[in-house]
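Example record

The entry below shows one chain as it appears in the dataset: sequence first, then structure tokens.
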Amino acid sequence: YFGGQFIRLSVGDTVVAFNPFSKKSKEKNIRFGSNIALISVDHPDYNGVENLEHGDKKPFVVRGPGEYEIGGIEVMGFAAAKTYGKDELRNTIYTLTLDGIRVCVLGALPTPELSSDTIEGIGDVDILFVPIAGDDLLSPADAEKLSVMLDAKLVIPIATSGKGDKNLTTFLKEAGAERVDFVEKLTLKRKDLEGFAGEVAVLLPSDHA
């Protein structure tokens, strides 16, 4: 996790990046090679695909709703019910399955209200990345409400500055996870999630790839 909504997932040699910072972002530029880039919002804090080319890796870029199959990985994009920021930019929620683990990234979601079709399309969620920053994104209370509604096995709050972030403190209290450990990265297998029901993990933002 690199801060904001910038996430890197990897299985073997396959790397998937969500919402990378662009060169026009005020956030620190971070570069690495990615096979797949999923962009929730066409905004400099989310659309830096130019930073995901390295060596022989050049990402297949997805920028909106639809069904995609990339290198055997199925990706679903769902249009959010509302738009993001003063420019009313469209947000896309993404789901994909890696190594048998179904991941959902909500992107720049401002409301916990999702259509029944979107909820059905998202389906069972093993790992949910949920923004908690408030303002144009979900508030900590709404983030917890939606996490419960989607019945995610493991919930990872993002759009947080890490330890000391008041929104993170509030979210952990809402989720009853005030004693959760903060970690720099997670390594998981499908069997590790067995028996999980709304567990919370917190990733510390990293400033390097």
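Notes for this example: The two ends are 9 Å apart (CA to CA). The chain has a mean pLDDT of 92.
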